[in-house]
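Here comes an entry:

___
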Amino acid sequence: MRKPLRLWPILNTVLAGWLIAAGSAGPAAADAAPSRLLSVPQSGVLRVCTTGDYPPYTLRGADGGYQGVDITLATDLASVLHAVPQWVPTTWGTLTTDFPAHCDIAVGGISDTADRRRVADYSVALTTDGKTPVTRRSSGDAYSTVDEINQPGVRVIVNPGGTNEKFARANFPNAQIAVWPDNLTIYDQLEQGKADVFVTDSIEGRYRQRTHPDLQVLHPDRPFDSATKAYLLPRGDTAFDAVVNAWLELQIRSGRTTQLLNGWIG
């Protein structure tokens, strides 16, 4: 089992600086909520919001357990902070309210959006991805472009509350858009011919065509748009955010994140 990379020299440096700053700020700072850099190790728990429906980043199994690229990384991060992860279920539609109320960090292929930045800080970007069509192989390249999808007879299926639905409503106003509540079974609907196309991030599409051999992801290397994937961090908790970002930078530079992604999508 791979041991998590230790960053206690960085933790100690950042924590010392934070304590000096807090002490010099006077009584008002003492009344402020403590940084999670202190409270997480003290409690021994890192509260992690995640949807559990977005492989290869986050996937909740029938037994209630979680797995995925970001689940592995969050587990390692918790160990670095001398804590264990506590998975807090959320949805794409409720993420912006669940995170500030219940979590220390949110993970799981989260795109950088203005709405989310209103309630949270973002970590460094782990990867960049974009929206691409997923269709049945029997459809060939019939739905390769936005114009081809944006037609009255085309049935577009979307999962609710996230960037997939926003993209579909902004770009396919002439198509028939149907909202399917469960992102884990949305591909079954597509495979069974109950929809023509699902536009999602290319990495998810590449993973799902492995689990659904009758489906294909079109031009995954040439997505319709581009967005970074990162973690939600507490607003204004500079000490905690700095340590998480330093740790993530090390995972990226060491090739750990790429290794995990390749393990899921091949």
About this structure: Confidence is low (pLDDT under 50) at residues 1-6, 18-31. The chain has two domains: 35-128+227-265, 131-217.
